[in-house]
Design goal:
single chain; about 300 residues; alpha/beta; inorganic pyrophosphatase (n-terminal core); Diaminopimelate Epimerase, Chain A, domain 1; 5-stranded mixed beta sheet; 10 helices
């Protein structure tokens, strides 16, 4: 009996993780490798929008991976993001795009770590290079993930490979040129309790040189309005996350999807000092402008270098 194979991402995956895993599961199936695509935790609001907007099948949600012999991770390569739910010894393959990763802790896995804007780009390239036909539903997911991760190609993480993959995917998906605005508008709804839920939902912790760091990342339109009206709510939620997770440093990386503007938000004075040192950021009312705009995956290695330098 062949080993049962799970294709998944980190716990509470974002659109890139879901899209990449779903499409890679399709790729494996087309190359006669039986697999199951499933996820642990809650899908992000943006992912649910894409699935519902195009009436795509929602992926399987599971409580644990005990019934699988082998696991492939897409858009994930560090143990903390797995929250103890996935045995690293079962992982046989990793596809990710972060410069800071822990592939050395997955002793049985072959890894593809390449610094592109989205893991979705790496999966799309598997289809392109193998001349395997991609379904329209997977093309929609992968294209949406690239648009999201690269901030519609405005983010500094964007590469020509992302642009090329997106063109290939949209030749199949056939989405209108203003689709990004629909995607980002849906992602920007932080009304009422959605703000706190979004902060907690896209929150990641890191252990660096005996320091515990927490970073929430939110990507929305009309960031200036959000800051002006709700910065107190943001800092209160961050303070709660800092206490709950026993963190030395915490902040929100806030990106404007329309302008590409990047802000750092924190009321913690030690974190403000750290970020001021790393980015020459100047805080006023708990907010600092960061230029050029950076995604969390780009920020973490810079903070790591700073903490190691001063250890």
């Amino acid at each position: 009996m062949p080993a049962s194979l799970l294709v998944t991402s980190y716990v509470n995956p974002d659109l890139d993780g879901v899209a990449g895993a779903v499409a890679y599961g399709e790729f494996l199936a087309q190359t006669n490798q039986e697999n199951t695509v499933a996820f642990i935790g809650e899908l992000h609001q943006e992912t649910k929008f894409v699935l519902n907007y195009f009436s795509l099948q929602h992926p399987l949600i599971i409580d644990n991976t005990d019934s699988f012999d082998q696991i492939i991770l897409v858009d994930s390569s560090d143990l903390a993001a797995l929250e103890g739910h996935i045995n690293p010894a079962k992982v046989i393959e990793i596809i990710d795009h972060r410069s800071l990763h822990e592939t050395d802790k997955f002793s049985n896995a072959k890894s593809q770590i390449e610094l592109v804007g989205a893991a979705a780009t790496l999966v799309a390239e598997r289809f392109m290079n193998s001349h395997i036909v991609l379904s329209k539903s997977s093309a929609i997911l992968l294209y949406s993930a690239i648009i999201s991760n690269t901030l519609n190609f405005k983010g500094s993480i964007t590469t020509e490979r992302d642009r090329f993959a997106a063109t290939y995917l949209n030749n199949i998906a056939e989405l209108p040129s203003d689709y990004w605005r629909q995607l980002f508008t849906a992602k920007s709804d932080l009304s009422g309790s959605k703000l706190k839920a979004t902060l907690a939902g896209d929150f990641a912790t890191f252990s660096i040189n005996n320091n515990r760091l927490g970073i929430a990342q939110v990507e929305v339109m009309n960031v200036k309005q959000l800051i002006a009206s709700r910065v107190a709510e943001i800092t209160e939620a961050l303070t709660g996350l800092q206490s709950d997770n026993s963190l030395d440093f915490i902040f929100l990386n806030l990106l404007d999807l329309e302008t590409g503007t990047n802000y750092l938000v924190t009321s913690d004075l030690n974190t403000q000092a750290l970020l001021s040192s790393v980015f020459s950021a100047s805080f006023a009312n708990c907010v600092a402008l960061n230029n050029p705009p950076l995604m969390r995956k780009q920020i973490v290695p810079l903070i790591k270098a700073e903490l190691e330098l001063n250890s």
